[in-house]
Amino acid sequence: MRRIPNLNRRIAHLGLAAAGAMAWSSFAIAEVRVVDRRIVMGGAATIQVYAESEASGQVATRAAFERMAAVEAALSDYRPKSESRRLVEIVDEDVSVSHDLAAAIGMSQRWHQQSGGAFDPTIGPLTSLWRTARRDNRRPSQASVSFAADAVGFEKLTFDPAARTVRCRTAAMQLDFGGIGKGMAADAAMEVLRSHGLNRALIEVGGDLVAGDPPPGTDGWRVRIRTIEADDSETILLANAAVATSGDVEQFLEIKNEAGTFLRLSHLLDPRTGEPVIVRREVTAMIRGGDSPGADADALASCASVLGFRESMRLADGTIDGEIRFFEVDDECEGGGKVRRIRFEADAGWASVRPGRTLADGFSFTEGPVVLPSGDLLFTDQPKDRVMRLGADGRLEIEHESAERANGLGVLADGRLVGCAEEHNRLIAWNQDGSVEVLAAREDGPFNGPNDLWVAPDGGIWFTDPFYARPWHAPGRTPIPAAVYRRSPEGITEAVAVDFVRPNGIVGSRDGRTLWVADLDGGMTDVFEVTHLGALINRRPFFPLGSDGMSLGPNDEVILTGQGLLVLTKDGALIRTLLPDAPWVANACFGGSDGRRLFVTMRDRVMVFEVPGGASN
User: Residues 6 or more apart from 140 whose CB is under 8 A from it?
Assistant: First the structure.
């Protein structure tokens, strides 16, 4: 057995969060700085506050610690007489619960739904089982894991927020709020300090931080973030925000199994599988503002540490202002790991978007949606080699058969439909009489396969050219370097950007001065400036994820598709993720009489979302 050193970190209750090593400091100018320390939820807690006098500050911090003790009494899974422990002893009866326990269950329910089950306070039976396994240096049997997992699941708990009652539907239930409790306690303490008129405060509970107004004469509390020795430290200024860290890079055991190989026993558990998380990662979450920044940061870090970088995109619901910072161990990387980030920005309009509805289904693979001035929607059903028309009245008909395996579509200024035709690997336009005009084809061999396009305001056509092996390709065909091409208004086509793995989605700004290109397999979307001559300059990373298709939203939001539909600000912050559980989202566009309809093509169907605000595409 090998025990991995914890470097002054402690394992949190739930097994979904571990406190990071953070240091903070500030410099007082006028008010008296008061510092008070206690033990909260089994770990060290510190309150730092600026008050008119030391006495008034101590009165306030004492009240704040008493409030945190009340939260602990409600949520603790260690204290035999805690409210949460007593609750699960009553089966199949409605039980009135305190405000604190009701708040914890309500917030947990939200994060459970948003995370697709990766956050679950009913994980207690599994937490207890794996905690024993780490103590005994022995992996539990599959039968015992399955038995414990049978008692886990939010559906085994009925919560009525209006009546503030809870019903436990199994006798084996155990609640574990370790992934949200520290943040809740810090939020409650901050509320007490503010009720005493003390807004300049910093509260630390087991490494999680909640900050109020900054110290006198400063812009924020200086917080140094460093998860492990291999991770470069960062210093941020924190004001009216919260930070929480979760992970297991240092907190796990490795035991030797019967085969002689080492088995890693992480303290992070995935409630969906009942097993420890395999990937070694540390996650730091920061939340700005809101009514419960500490609890939200705690839960956000807990969810992300289980979900990982890509799946954490699903957490964006339009209400989050903040950031997730991932440090993932990679033995092939210099320094032992890499850092990636997801920035979030709240948007009330996108937060209010309701689930979409299906307009038509039964297709093989839909792509290339585009809305005509008439309001009709055109899209391709590529495997069936046809372009479909979905009328504004709901009528569905075939627009073009034998459509040259068209993928991405667009509309030219003269009303003609233009498409990326993969059958002969060229850019084509359909004339009004149904005939086809070739707009771009390489003289010294075919393109890889034009995939997606964007028609610029000046009439230029930008399109991506990745290589996908197709059944109709000649045997042994080899790809040319993947690139982005531009067909000028004068009809000249040339490559304008290279160095991609597989570029797919592409869209530009309404003034034609900015272009976004998504490298699906390269895992990055870049943004370029477009010169008045049509050249691309100042390439820079926009979002650390590729995309199948792209569109531009009501307020210049950039829409990415693939494993879900992502709504981003024009600066690359993630606002909202729609359809996070869809098998694949191929493309999207805006249309409708008021420009507020988001049409989405996804494998076998076409859907629509009603989006607040105007848009055109």
Answer: 129, 130, 132, 133
Amino acid at 398: I
Find all residues with CB under 8 Å of 529, minimum gap 6, and list them.
513, 514, 515, 536, 537, 538
> In this predicted structure, what is the pLDDT of residue 252?
62
In angstroms, what is the C-alpha Rg of the chain?
27
pLDDT of residue 601: 98
| DSSP result, 148-217 | HHTT--GGGEEEETTTTEEEE--TT-----TTTHHHHHHHHHHHHHHHTT--BEEEEETTEEEE-BPPTT
| Alpha-carbon distances, residue 157 vs 13, 71, 298 (angstroms) | 20, 21, 22
For residue 270 the two structure tokens come to 């995935």
Q: Measured between alpha carbons, how far is 582 from 577 in angstroms, rounded to an integer?
A: 11
Cα angle 425, 427, 431; round to 5: 130
571 CB-near residues (< 8 Å, 6+ apart): none
Q: Mean pLDDT of all residues in the chain?
A: 89
**CA dihedral for 455, 457, 458, 464, sign (positive or negative):** negative
How many Å apart are CA 424 and CA 389, to the nearest integer?
23
In order of their start, the domains of the chain are 2-346 (3.10.520.10), 365-546 (2.120.10.30)
Confidence grade of residue 258 (pLDDT, cut at 50, 70, 90): low
357 or 253: which leads in pLDDT = 357
Q: Is 111 helix (H, G, I), strand (E, B) or coil?
A: helix
Tokens 């009328």 belong to which residue?
Answer: 391
Q: Which class for 569: exposed (0-12), middle (13-18), buried (19 or more C-beta within 10 A)? A: middle
Q: What are phi and psi of 286, to 5 degrees?
A: -125, 130
Q: Strand, helix or coil at 55? A: helix
